[in-house]
Structures are given as structure tokens and as C-alpha cells.
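DATA SHEET
Item: assembly model
Revision: 1
Owner: S.N.
Input lines:
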Amino acid sequence: MSAMTDKGTQKRPLVEMFSLRGATGPLIGLLLLCLFLTFATDSFFSIRNFLNVLDQITVLGIMAVGMTFVILIGGIDLAVGSVMALSMMVLGYLNVEAGLPMSVAIPLALAAAAMNGVIAGVLVTQFNVPAFIATLAMMSIARGLANMITNGSQIIGFPPWFNLAAIIRYGGYLTMTVAVMLIVFLLALLYQRYRHSGRTLYAIGGNPEVARLAGINVKRTTVMVYMMCSLLAGLAGILLAARLDSVQPSSGVAYELDAIAAVVIGGTSLSGGTGGVGGTIIGVLIIGVLRNGLNLLGVSPFLQQVIIGTVIVLAVAAETLKHRSK
Amino acid sequence: MKTTLKALLATAVLAATTGPALAEDVKKIGLAVPNLQADFFNQIKLGVEGYAGSKGIEVIVVDAKNDTATQVSQVQDLMTQGIDAFIYIPAGAAAAAVPTRLARAEGIPVINVDRTPEGAPGDTFIAGESVESAYAVCDHIIRLKGGEGKMAIIHGQKGTTPEVDRFKGCKRAIDENPGVELVAQQWSQQWSPDEGFSIAQNMLQAHPEITLIFGQADGLAMGAAKAVEVAGISGEVIIGGYDGDVAALEYLSECKGPFWVTATQSTQRMGVLAVDSAIAVAAGKKVPERQIPDAVLTTCANSPKFVAKHP
């Protein structure tokens, strides 16, 4: 008897963890999109294509998780695309040019990325620079540094296993890079739901002054959130380097906008305080499936841009209407 | 270990030779282009579509918007759609090998146009002879200035095949003329007119003595021409371009400078060659490793002809 109740209480939070908190609209949209593509093309509904989509959203997915946390506390991070490029170039320089093993090069590349977030966080909290401006500045600085490492050139010549990690589907399903993304998703969901500091993000986003008076160290948490966002952008860069088997400093231009779009489509409010990682994952999938599906349908590249913009507008409008009717 | 490697290699070669021969009829071609905003690539796309259409072949075009990661994803999607041949213009320089590997895994023909990935060549590479044509353009503008002057070069995207080759050719023309000194060089990201404009403006600011400018693409040259006009020195500066974009040919036809000469690439012909090569490779026939549709030196004397009908 007691064993049964135990099981019951364990199960509930597990369900809650995957509860979508206001992202039901996007989820319905995603399902409708998949349904449409299944009937409109022969090639959409297959395991192989689904795995391709997962491959294709890896970078965006990981970036968008970090962006979700930043937006939850009412901030924004425009630097993630540039930080990703910086992390890639540091990795390439250390591994290929300097000959250091990956076990050293990867942590150092991640550290270089995280540094950017720390600086942005300090600018926001200690110097009261608006997040938009602080990260806009970091976007420019990180891109410049990425270019300076090789004077604008690309680096090729990673060890063969590195590219294979993004190509070989272990057990027939998961590439190493997709596995990393899924782990990031899981950890982020757990963190947001169960860790005290995960819960405080909502408080800060709702009202930073009230959060401070409630005993939350708002400044430290804010710096940590920007650092985590940059760190994840750096991680995305390492996975992209594996996928492309090369690095170049012009990578990731305007990726921050894709990440913000995914977060917003997933139902997180740009003013902070509501939403979450669960919705963002749906948002990332919508963008990924849409791009993949439009390619499969053979839609002209120019029309694709129009359609993607329209979907962003529709997703946000639907969310707004729902809130208004409540 | 060695024998297994050899065996692997042998099967790989076998797969490479028998693979394409199996898919004999080409019904669907995938075309991956770096950036349709650049007229040059748009012209190739139109060439491929026009010619393939006349043969009843479907063409699926994907545009990477100059982002290598996007291109890899798009090529994956092309493979999912079961294309019979892959015409591939790499976006950027670095990641070029990955899409070729993806296509090889499917055993379909890979036709490279304009750029070829280092270390992973396709079945054939179709591109103008950039080195010689760039030499001809630079030689022409240098002679217009009497074999001397301070020169500036606006490069394309660093490390791409055309960027490297066009510089090589132009450099030879500069080296042959001791009176010419290369005083400024700058790389663009997109080969675009707005980049050409701002780069040229900065160059003229730093080196007002510049009288010769080579833009590695017509977009860059047109931008530079605008910068020269704004500076009010159209009479003193001579600009050379490359590619033979429609807008550039129309500009040259007016015969008023400062942009005087370009090398017109046979983009329509490239499209036709690419489709024909795809059909031939799929049928198991051998095609030349390198095919060179010539670029034609174009001034205002012969540009109206190309405006009427692009080669």
C-alpha cells in the first residue's frame, strides 16, 4: 500500500516537469504543421527525416535554452551568435594550430565563451547598462576577437572522430551531437523545475525589486544567467564545429535572432517572468520542422523567408489573443 | 590494418564507380547555392532551371544565405527528397567537404560549380579560369593608366576558390608592371555592392593617391564606383570588376566610367554544362575532371551584346 502511494507521488512531478505552461498553443501548431507536411510530401514522415531535423536543430536548440533563462529574468542576449563563433575559433586555434588535445581545447573554448557572459552580466548588474546595449557591445567585441584569431580565415583539420561524432548515428538513432542537445534539454527542464535558483528566475523576471527584498541575490543570479547563456552558445559552437568539420569566424551571424524567435514562439514573454524551457523546445522544433518541410516541399528560397516570418507573427499573435481572452 | 584499409579503399572506389551507374535516369536535380542575392549565382540557377526544364528534369533549389551550417542542413533535406544528382556550389570556404560526403554516401553524382571543396572533389568541376581572366582585367585597367599608379584590391569572401584565384591572376599583372604599387587590400564577406562602397570609401580616405581599383566581383566594383563618384574623382580612378552581372553590363554600356572593364562569366553555359554533366555521370559516362567555360573580357564596346543575351 505504502509502496503504491510512493509511486504515485513520484509520478506526479514527472508529469509536471513536462507540463508546457502556456505552450499548448505552440504544441498544437507544431502537431498541425507535422500533420500537414506528412500529407503534403512523401519524404517528411520518416524516422530518417525526423533524425535529420534533430541534427539540424542542435545548435539552435542549445542556444535557445540559454536564451530562455535570460529572457525569463527580463533580459536579452544579442551576443550568442558571435560568442558561438568565438568559441569555435578558440577551439580550432587550440586544437589544430596549437596542437592541444580536445580534452584541453574544448574546456578552454567553453571558458572563453563563458567569459563574455560574465562581462555582459557585470555590465548589466554593476554598471546598470541596459541588457540590449551590453550584449550588443559584446556581440561586436566577440565577433571581432573571433576574426582576429586567424585574421578572418577558416581553420580545417580536426581529428576524424570529431566530425564522425556528428555523423555516426549510434544505435542507429542518435549522433553524439544530438545526444548532447537532449542532455542539455533534460538538465534545463530539471533545473527550472526543481532547483531553488531555477525557481528564482521567475521571481526576478516578475519583479526584480520584490525578488531582492525576498532575499534573492538578484545581481549574482543575473551574472550567472548571462554566463550560462554564453556557455551554452559556446557549447553549440563546438557541436557546430563537429558538424561542419571546420570553423570560420563568420559563423552564426544573426543566430541570436533565431534563438529569440524560438523562445518567443515557445510562449516565453519578452518582458520576463512567464514561460520556460518546455515551450522553447517546442518553438525550436517548429522552426526546425518548418525549414525542413519547406525545403522538402521545394518552396522557393525567397518565399520561405516570407513564410517563416509569418509563422512567428501568427505564433505570437495567438499567444497574445489567448492571454487577452482570459 | 593495412590490408583492411586497402580493402576499405577498394570497396569505396567500387561504390564510387558503380554507385552512380545504378541510377541511370536523372529526374530530379538538387541545386545548392550559397546566396541568391548575388546575381552571379542567380544567373547560374536560371541557367540550370531553364535547361533542365527543357529536358523535363525537376530542379530543387536551396539557398544557404552564405551560411555553411544552413547549407549542410539543406543538403541533408535534398538527400531525403531522393534527388538523382547534386549540383553543388559551396557556401563559404571551410565546411565545403561535408555536403559532398553526404552525397557520396547516397551514391549520386556531385557536380561542383564555381567553387570546389578542398580534399573532397566532385565528379567534375565547372568554373571559369579565374586566374587568367583576373589577369586580363587587371592588365587592362593598368594599361589604361599607362602602366603605373597606386592600386587597391577589394577581395571577395576570404579563402573561397574565386577569391584566391582572382587575386593570384591580378597579382601577376601588378608584378609585371613595376610602376604599379599595391597599397591597400580589404576582404568583404558577401561580395556585395554596399561592402564595396564602404571598403572603397575607407581606402580612398587612407590613400587618396589610389588611381586603380580591382573589385573581385561586379558588386564590389559597382560599390567602389559609387564611392569614387561621391569623392568626385571619377576622372582619375579606373575600376575593374569580375563576373559580368546584368547590372554591371548595363552600367558598362553607358561608357562613362569610372568602372570600365569586367570579365563576363558564361553563367548560362555553366548551368547547361552542369545539367549535362549530371546526366552523363549518372549514366556511367566519364566527364572531364575540370570544365572551363571561358570568361570574356568586357568593356563598353562589347557589353551591349551581352546585355541583349547573356552568354
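QC remark: Chain B has two domains: 2-127+267-292, 130-264.
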